[in-house]
Amino acid sequence: MPFPKAFYRWRPHPWHGLEIGEKPPELVNAYIEITPFDLVKYEVDKYTGYMNVDRPQRSSSHPPALYGFIPRTYCGEETSKLNPKVDKGDHDPLDICVISERPISRGEIILRAKVVGVIQGIDHGEADDKIVAVLKNDNIYGDITDISELPKVIVERLTHYFMTYKLIPGEESKFTIEKVMGKEAAFGVVRAAIKDYEEVFGE
Length: 203
Hints:
The protein is α+β, with helices and mostly antiparallel strands. It contains three helices and nine strands. The protein has helices at residues 77-80, 152-164, 183-201; strands at residues 27-34, 40-44, 51-56, 66-69, 95-99, 109-123, 126-127, 130-135, 175-181. The strands form two sheets. The protein has a five-stranded mixed beta barrel with strand order 1-4-5-8-6.
């Protein structure tokens, strides 16, 4: 008996084996690496696809939202063109933060997310944008279409987290935020990251 068409005989690689989403750049899949309950920064190992312990969080700062990446995206040349202060991307999949009313305490899950904005970041001189999204069909946030509709404190928490999550006492932060932009800018970043992925990895 043959395998059903949608059945994965082996575990797919989270970056390369999962679908981008049902309607990119608006509706995308998010593979979640860390949650607001994690005191350790987990990150997918790019070679094996298994979860890797990147580092324990140095400070008491917790990620204020679910945090991961959009499969089959890549921050390269096209993505970096959207930020005039950099000339290259960070060569990682595109990061995404997903807002959910109900606490979700486990990682290594796939979420359907609605893109509503982007935090335009620079890390060590490389484009390191953070897409902001809401959980599709969320009872509180599901009808939001743009980051401007989110409570201000949520956006403040996100920007504060990224400004400080790599901060080492006595040293200047290497991560800076240029702008916080709405959904149309975010759609452009997602499209660029999809194009970068296709250029680098092809089909």
